[in-house]
Amino acid sequence: MAKQSSAEQPAMYELMYIINPVLNDEQTQDIAARVLKFITENGGDIREVVEMGSQRLAYPIQKKRNGFYVNVYFTHDDGDFVAKFDRVMRINDDIMRHMVLRFDAKMERYYQEKKAERAAPREEPETEAAEA
Fold it and tell me: Does CATH number 3.30.70.60 belong to domain 11-131?
């Protein structure tokens, strides 16, 4: 695996994981905090965290129909980090599934567009009609 030169920008990653729904809110937040702490302690930079909350799974995992979804967007300049991180995520029994994607240029443009959409204030069509 080729190492990146220091002049290059660190690679951007998206982590999506599902936390066991049996846990209470405090335990769920603790797991999410531990994941973020592991990334930052190993040289990663957290860009954004999107907690999507409890959602129904497409199919049962470990005999459970729901899970607490979390998306984390981060950068890291060491490609070997992902293998180590993957192992840590597999060991944690409270994380039912996880997936780490490395962004290419197209994915990064899409991420920037979606981030801008989430940040933009939503205009209500009903209030505009009422003002006219």
Answer: yes
